[in-house]
Amino acid sequence: MNIPFTKMHGAGNDFIVLDQINVNYKLSSAQIKSLAHRQLGIGFDQLLIVEKSVLPSAEFKYRIFNSDGNEVEHCGNGARCFFLFLKSSGITNKKTIAVETKSGVISLSFDADNLIAVNMGFAKNNFEEIPFFSEVNSKNIVSINNVDYPFYPISIGNPHAVIKLDSLDNIDFSLTGKQLQQSGSFPNSVNVGFLKIINKNEIALKVYERGSGLTLACGTGACAASIISIQNGWVTSPVTVHMDGGDLVIKWAPDQPATLIGPAKIVFEGEFDLQNFK
User: Fold this and answer.
1) The pTM is what?
2) What superfamily would CATH give domain 141-256?
3) pLDDT tens for residues 241-258?
4) Which of 27, 105, 150, 226 counts the highest number of beta carbons within 10 A?
């Protein structure tokens, strides 16, 4: 079976998008993992699937699978690509749409600069909602290069741990990321963000994602790092987040949903034979 796909990226965070509005390809976790392989497959950070929504408040359903084949709750960079795919494919001609995700309904729209704005929903600092088991690491401390740093648990539809550093040089992001992911503090694993404050409206960020590793950009990670920085008085909204794949802008205020603004691009379109990915 040949399956059409669209390869896309948002600030270097790359995806393939499948249209399952009228068909269900029923890809297994093993097939997704094979497709994600950078040398033996297409290569991507996440697979995005478009489906019909059964919710009256949403027009489409947006599903996200990491490169390890596991389904996850949210992806801000993917949401922008999802919207551009719908527009470029002629599936919708609306400037604003509501879509169902595993973590709730979000809205997507084009802003005045023709970038895509994503209403990311409300941040959650409550440990039970993240979820985060504080009793496993009661001081919320992680050691990096023999120095102890506090990490800040937060959920933006998916779990994050944010660590503020003076420098992002000479840091083994994978080692620290895996340490927190395997610590038992986060029962659903965790995305680990490493941030450096540049000034009152800019930060630099690296994110070690669960199921994908170190990525060029992470939309929910940018939101998590920005919100933690605003809550602690390190920056003020709006925040420009500089990542290896490009820049994103985050707007947030207490008791308000976060807004993620950034680009999305189509790289190429193609087909793959599912028989080659058993």
Assistant:
1) 0.90
2) Diaminopimelate Epimerase; Chain A, domain 1 (3.10.310.10)
3) 999 999 999 999 999 999
4) 226
Catalytic residue, chosen from 11, 75, 97, 261, is 75
Active site residue 218: yes
* Tokens standing for residue 76: 């801000």
pLDDT tens digits along 22-73 = 999 999 999 999 999 999 999 999 999 999 999 999 999 999 999 999 999 9
Specify the fold of 2-115+263-277.
Answer: Diaminopimelate Epimerase; Chain A, domain 1 (3.10.310)
Q: Are 137 and 183 in contact (CB under 8 A)?
A: yes
- Name beta bridge partners: 15: 8, 46
Please indicate whether residue 75 is annotated as part of the active site: yes
In contact, 258 and 220? CB cutoff 8 Å: no
Residue 30 buriedness (CB in 10 A; 0-12 / 13-18 / 19+): exposed
